[in-house]
Every structure is written in C-alpha cells, then in structure tokens.
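Open question from group meeting: does this chain pack into something compact, or does most of it stay loose? Before anyone orders reagents, we agreed to write out a predicted structure and look at it together. Recording both the input and the output here so the notebook holds the full record.
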Amino acid sequence: MALSDAAPRRPPLGTDALTARVVRPGGLWRDIRVVSETGSTNADLLAEARAGAAEGLVLVAETQTAGRGRLGRTWSSPPRAALAFSVLLRPVAVAPAARAWLPLLTGIAVAAALRAEAGVTATLKWPNDVLVDGRKIAGILAEAHGDAIVAGVGVNVTLTRAELPVPTATSLLLEDAACLDRERLLAAMLTELASRYTAWAAGPDPAALRAEYLRWCVTVGREVRVELPGRQQLAGTATDVDETGRLAVRTGLGTTLVGAGDVVHVR
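Structure tokens returned:
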C-alpha cells in the first residue's frame, strides 16, 4: 500500500505547546485556543468580535462541522487531518478600502510558511487559494464585523487521496512534504502572518504589498473564468492585480476589475 493511501498518524494539537511557540510579550498573538470540534472557527471568532474581543485571538479546531468557503461553499475534513484555524484582527489604522488586502496578505504568509517548513512549492491563485503544482492545498476566507476582520485558513495536511474533497485538491502528505507536524506548521504560519500583518497594519504600503503578491500569484497572465456573485461569469485574460487587490481581467469588451469572485484557471 502506498503511503498516500495508508491511514497516517494524526496526533492532536496541544494548546500549551502552541502557546509556547508563538505567544510572546508584546507580540500579536495573545491567546491560542484548540477545540476538538466546532461548527466554524470563523463564526466563533466573529461572535467574539461582536462581543468586543481584542485582536490576537487564535482559534483552532481539530474538526469543523460547518466550515465555510467562498461563495457559500462548505469545507470539511477528517478529524486532525488538516489545520483549520481563524485569527481575530483589528487593523484600525488601515483605511477600510485597503483592508481588502488582508486575505491576500494571509495567503502570502501561508504560502511562505509551507515553502519554508514543508518544502513544497506553494503559489497563490487569486484571491484565496494556495496551490502546489496547480492543485489546491489551502484556502482562506476573511469576514468582517465593524473594524474587526476574522481570517480563516484551512490547510490539507494528511488527507489521503480518497479523503480529498475534490480531485483538484492535494495535501502535504500527497506532495511528500518535508513536514507533516501540524503544530510546527501552524506555528510557522502564525509567525509569518504576525510579521507581515504587524508591518502592514502600522503603515500600509500598497505598492510594496502588491509587488510581493504578484511574485507569488500564478493567476496573472493566465486565461481565466471568474464566477461572480449572482452566478454571473467573466472569461478573459488575468492581466494584473491593482493596488486595492482587485483582479484585472481583459476581455474582448475591455478590462474589468474584479473585487470578489471564484477563479478557474483555464487550461
């Protein structure tokens, strides 16, 4: 039996160990909570935001029963086979129009951590997918309440081929990654995110962030089909990401700037 088809070992996460790795005096992360099961970590932290919780709260679930993706899609995985976590942030110094960059910035952090810790060639598909060899290994969903933004991340770690939600997905196990330790991977992602978020929130530089995002993004230059809210579609060539994080798509009628949508890379 191939490793990718075998039942891998899936140890639980430890709150104390994660706290020791990433919570520092004066740092961004102030509290890490690990729960065995919840409906949605994003929904839970949005409730915390409505109750006035400060930024820096991290919620990790060993399994979600009502995880959400873009355009109302559901997301789930076997217990302890993935990393499903959300972070509560309050970028009050960032202009509301510039806050659309937060999920893209989160994608850079996740991709950078996966490259550094797992040794996989992670790239980004606009706006919220992390890819390895063209297959989705992670997704990001950001939701706002007032000045709070909750960014949720789901990373496929030890899913076998039979456990993948769709044939176009993959996992670190299937990519023969150098690291399958979820604690180590999560600590790396939180560290990368804290570093990038702290610099961005202190004084956003849209041009610098855009330049970095374009280095990671494999959507620009591709023929794409964009599924827009309301079941509309837009087909054309992705030519750029502008300084507000919108995707520029050139069609026969001109260029359209897309702020929200689900992109399919047309082969």
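Observations to bring back to the group:
The domain at 219-265 is CATH 2.30.30.100 (SH3 type barrels.).
The mean pLDDT is 93.
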